[in-house]
Design brief:
single chain, alpha/beta, 9 helices
Length: 277
């Protein structure tokens, strides 16, 4: 192999995850399942974790047909459960190279109508749960001298509509925690990033398909005029997990179909190239 061939092959290898161990919280469905599949497809052993036993076991079984996976059942919003998982991983694995968290909850309700209980439910899982994740698995990675932590935010961290204030506040908080932790652990070789999707077609949003006026209105907020597939976000997470992103940390990677690049749906005042055909 020539020097040039070796150099080009090295680029391909940057995206591979062979020999690495990854944790994915929320692996039972949606973006978490897609992330687990993408990371496994690139060669990593995947620790699939979720409170949905049936779903997470199914994900692990499917990955196990061609790769390596294991299952843990836990509530990502429970500090003791997250600590116990971190201890179990340290005990049974030499390293934890990658850790991803995706679980979140949303109560669409006007802020002045929110109850204390509803606020606690949203903030406890989205924000506090992400803190538990970053703290527990960040400690492992600092100790071992490297790793990639990936949290899940949302375009609702910056763009809102009525009923999204509390959810959006938690997602904005996640980005700030990611930035802060990245600044603290970079010297230990640990990278910390967030993925920021917009509209993703998962089982949770299936009821919206019965309301095409809402479904289509949301689609029109993207330049592609469609919802994302979970695999499109999962692929972005796999990139952040890989050495191809070795100089990427403290960032919020938009996977939003252009949602935050445009000022809402097009008005039609200016014809596009596609209109002219």
């Amino acid at each position: 192999m020539t020097e040039t061939e070796q150099r080009l092959a090295a680029y391909r290898d940057l995206f591979r995850l062979d020999g690495k161990t990854a944790l994915v919280l929320g692996a039972a469905s949606g973006i978490g399942k897609a992330a687990a599949e993408a990371i496994a497809a690139l060669g990593a052993t995947v620790i699939c974790a979720d409170k949905n036993r049936e779903g997470v076991e199914a994900t692990s079984r499917e990955i196990g047909m061609t790769g390596r996976a294991e299952v843990h059942v836990l509530d990502a919003g429970n500090a003791e459960a997250v600590k116990a998982l971190a201890l179990a991983i340290e005990t049974t694995h030499k390293r934890l190279d990658i850790a991803v968290t995706t679980p979140a909850i949303h109560v669409r309700k006007l802020m002045l109508d929110y109850s204390d209980e509803e606020y606690d439910r949203v903030a406890d899982l989205n924000l506090r749960g992400t803190f538990y994740f970053l703290r527990a698995f960040g400690r492992i990675m600092v100790k071992q001298g490297g790793g990639s932590l990936i949290a899940s935010s949302s375009v609702r961290a910056t763009t809102l509509e009525p009923g999204l204030a509390i959810y959006g506040a938690t997602k904005a908080g996640i980005i700030q925690m990611v930035r802060g932790l990245a600044s603290e652990v970079g010297g230990h070789g640990v990278r910390v990033n967030a993925v920021v999707p917009s509209i993703v077609e998962t089982a949770l949003v299936a009821p919206l398909k019965a309301r095409p006026e809402i479904w289509n209105a949301l689609s029109a907020h993207t330049v592609f005029n469609r919802w994302a597939k979970p695999s499109e976000v999962g692929a972005a997470i796999a990139f952040l997990a890989s050495d191809a992103a070795s100089y990427v940390t403290g960032t919020a990677l938009l996977v939003d179909g252009g949602w935050t690049a445009i000022d809402g749906p097009p008005t039609g005042l200016t014809k596009t190239h596609s209109d002219a055909r």
